[in-house]
Amino acid sequence: EAPKALLDVNGIEVIYNHVILVLRGVSLVVPEGKIVALLGANGAGKTTTLRAISNLLKSERGDVTKGNIHYKGERIDSLTPADLVRRGVIQVMEGRHCFGHLSIEENLLTGAYTRTDSKGEIAASLDMVYQYFPRLKQRRASQAGYTSGGEQQMAAIGRALMADPKMILLDEPSMGLAPQIVEEIFEIVRDLNTREGVSFLLAEQNTNIALRYADYGYILESGRVMMDGRADELANNEDVKEFYLGIE
Ligand code: ATP
């Protein structure tokens, strides 16, 4: 039996500044409980796709001009980013965006601002974040601006967890990080997926690592899905190997 679609993106077109056509009808599905990778070169449209889903294009002068987006069967394209956060759809932006002058713990707590449940439940989420990211616990009192790139990426994911997510849209988590740290972060993503049931849509230029952790992948080229398939099938596909995995 096919898994239920948590997120269903259907034929979206995105235009920047009324003239620059960047997505030319992108469709993809994230089934409940899965990790889906959105792959492709720099400029292929990965970030634009994530921003279209979380309705963050307006500030970039971008508009979704065709298609529709459903989450749990409900149409979400006209909801605000805050509405989406309340429904459990959380974006972790590329480049991490920590508040540099706040401590790691204060950064994490900013993730809980839309929650209306008790202080106790928010404290429990903080404990959960520290369980998954022991490094953040050690660095809880450090000013985020003085922590490493890896710690800031962890804090960005931790902040998303503080919002009690069902689905995380994770933009380029490997960017600028050493391979060992990238591996550590992907291991945690996998644990969050299997133990907490968080679904992920993961934009990555690092095809190799993304396909090792994802269940399914979509490859974007110039704003179109050129290929999609199970992660293990894509990893063994000759074209994917040649163009995206490097020649071995
Ligand atoms: P990256 O690895 O840089 O995140 P990407 O695959 O996520 O790449 P996008 O950032 O979505 O690609 O960009 C897709 C295309 O849209 C690029 O050609 C980019 O130059 C263009 N673009 C992005 N933002 C804007 C904008 N605000 N105005 C005009 N064009 C834009």
From TrEMBL:
Gene3D superfamilies: P-loop containing nucleotide triphosphate hydrolases. SMART domains: AAA. One of its GO terms (molecular function) is ATP binding. InterPro entries: AAA+_ATPase, ABC_transporter-like_ATP-bd, BCAA_Transport_ATP-bd_LivF, P-loop_NTPase. The keyword Membrane applies. Keywords: Amino-acid transport, ATP-binding, Cell membrane, Membrane, Nucleotide-binding, Transport. Residues 7-247 form the ABC transporter domain. It comes from the Bacteria. The keyword Cell membrane applies. Belongs to the ABC transporter superfamily. This is ABC transporter ATP-binding protein. It comes from Advenella alkanexedens.
